[in-house]
Write a structure and sequence with these properties.
alpha+beta, single chain
Amino acid sequence: MVKSFSRLVRRIQQSRPAPASTIRTGWLALSALFALSGILVAPAPALAGGNSSTPCAPIPQASTCTYTQNVHGAVQSFPSNVPCVDPPNSVTGFLTLTFNAVFHVTVNTAGDAWATSTQTGDFSFVPFNPAGLSYTGHFAIWFGDSFNQNNSVLHDTFNLHGTASDGSSLTAHMIDHMSISASGMTLVFDKVVC
């Protein structure tokens, strides 16, 4: 989740669409990252009416497989920057996230798969430069993916609301979408608002 949060921050700062191939590759990597990070962060899954105590493989199942992973009170800290404020791809301070998350996967007997995750919590940012502004606030990230043999849809939202040490406000919102039809037609869009 650390890398995915950093990637989302970089996309907000750049505020320009990436090529479809980059987004497609990034989405697949992001989906895998969320799946793996949910598994690694909390070892005891909470089953949501499903039949699996381990993650569902993205292949045809003997019966529909569902898996839900919950994370409560997680804390992650890493070098980062402030979206919509700092230069893109710069590292200007240390970000600490305290959050809850849920990750859910369903795979049916045909191998069609659905995955979704929500992560929400508080953040604090402390600049490396003591004269810089620090920030505290709340963030929420959601993504949803669905795949079958012919089509796929991947989308996410990212919201951040914070307050700087000087009392100024920080707000960032991002939405991304990518779909691939059975004919291979790809639709990609994103929108960033600071």
